[in-house]
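May I ask for an example protein's residues together with how it folds?

___
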Amino acid sequence: MKLLVERFTSDKDATISAIYLDNIFQCFGLEDEYREEKVASETRIPAGSYKVGLRTTGGFHARYEKKFSDIHQGMLHVQDVPGFEFILIHVGNTDENTAGCLLVGTGARAGEGDMSIQSSRVAYKKLY
C-alpha cells in the first residue's frame, strides 16, 4: 500500500493536506508548518517517500490500545525521516495537538490563521 500526503495549503502555524491510500482519497491531514530550520516539535517533516510501520511502545501506543481496542495493533509510525524520529499518525484537531506528527480528520478548515481538521477519530479508524 502507498500512502500519499498531498499538502495544499499552509500558514505560519499549520499545514493542511489530502491523504490518499493507493491513490484513493481517505481523509485530510494536519501537520505543523514548514520551517527552513527545524524546531523540535514545531516543524513538519520534509516532503518525500517514507515507509509507515507500527510502533508498539510508548505512551501513545498504550493510550490507543485502550481508545481503539477493536483495531489497534500499534501506532502508525512514519519511518526513517532524516532528522526526525517517532513521527506518528494520530488523532487531533489543531497544530496544538501535534508535535511534528500527522493528524487526520474527515473535514478540514483551511483559513489563514484558522487551520483545523474535524472528526479525527472517524478518519483515524478509516485510515487504520
About this structure: The beta strands are 3-10, 14-21, 24-32, 51-55, 75-79, 87-90, 102-105, 107-111, 114-118.
